[in-house]
């Protein structure tokens, strides 16, 4: 039973509630006094079932407390009094604020009530669709993000919508390619909604989408199935089929439903479609099943989730606080249970005698280490979702690192090599080629040589010359079948590109080096044939008054009271014999090696006597 963590699923049929373990083995049944059971939801924090009955005169919604022992009677209490001809198909429970929500297709309303409210308290109308065409059918709660989702099964305007639990921000998130959507559930592990659609005629689909309606994916399309309600686990989707009175399952993750790139087709509305075989019938009933729930273990699995952390901690604190206050003076049995019942630091809940396990542990007493023997060739790590994941060793891959990267990869006896980066490559045997040694070069060359025999202009891949020659020798009537290609007809199968990056770099470097060498040669020739011009620096000095005692005149002329001197460095302080200076008039003439020295001397200090000092 749920209280002993041996039950994983609960299913309602018109006359009873079935409880099953995770392998769908029946554990027990309950609520036999009812005749038209319908919706069901589960308070996992306090181990309590809430369900509806659409024909019970005493009430419309009831709670079921699972007993501590199998022999104890199942305690059922009335939660909501029947008022009209309610038709409740779906219920949802908010474990944080302890509110119960349900949809009524007759009054076209969604109601809510606190599970702690007195019997005399009437439920509140959460949303009223009486003035619109909406037929509220399935409902679900994302208690982490505080959102309520529902399906509108009115086939003329079918939609999936959501609203905040504060009654604000209502949005339509899916409104295309649906005839009559029914059940819906929120998967906290993947942050997605899963829902079933009764399509036109005999068709149906099982679908999923992000919480905002984007990334819509069709997990399964089929016929002759009337899906009604559904539940999800970490690996699979389960839905009820009223046509075949059965429960079906399908993998939650498939190569065609998870990624858009792998889908078979995408219709004009952008919805990914994949017709998938692989649905399995789990159980079949005499009566039509009406509702289904599954345990999610969110108190353990979602404790480290970024979106759920605060909410789950608040729920957990309330449960443990109530557990201590309800047993202020615990008996000896309770003390023993608290100390020894829950293993691996699990926390004991007195009211339900269950354990809240730490992340990475599971079982009635938290005795199961989820990482133990989980990864075959790798290291086990618990994810933020509370699930075991594997970090595989270099040569292995797979969900549990159970697959060798090299196993079956290289064909035709090729040798598998795992690079340091983890990539796999093949060292092929002689006469085989390809990334996986999948090509038989003898067969390929044989085909080319046959073509070459018929058409001498055929280009044959490089390397086929010897193979074709060998085929002629060892094959009967080889000369009539094959021809050995001549060298002009051989070409590389994979020629390197002529203008690759290396060639371009080498060419550019060569051009730059050649230009540099040419500039160096030209510069040398110019220096050889045309001497460099001397640089003459002039300094203008204006003196107010010369100081004869301290200043040394630059010439032998008498010093004036105010003087303007022009100093020509390295030139005019020399005598005529030492001075290499050139006059400006000389620079105007073309210099040449044949110039007469006589003329240079004439121009050397031309006009010196006329300069004003």
UniProtKB/TrEMBL annotation:
Membrane topology, record value: Single-pass type I membrane protein
Gene3D superfamilies the UniProt entry points to: Laminin (2.10.25.10), TolB, C-terminal domain (2.120.10.30)
Key words, A-Z: Cell membrane, Differentiation, Disulfide bond, EGF-like domain, Glycoprotein, Membrane, Oogenesis, Repeat, Signal, Spermatogenesis, Transmembrane, Transmembrane helix
Transmembrane segments: 503-525
Record Pfam families: Ldl_recept_b
Domain EGF-like: 329-367, 402-438
Name of this protein: Protein cueball
Organism, scientific name: Ceratitis capitata (Mediterranean fruit fly)
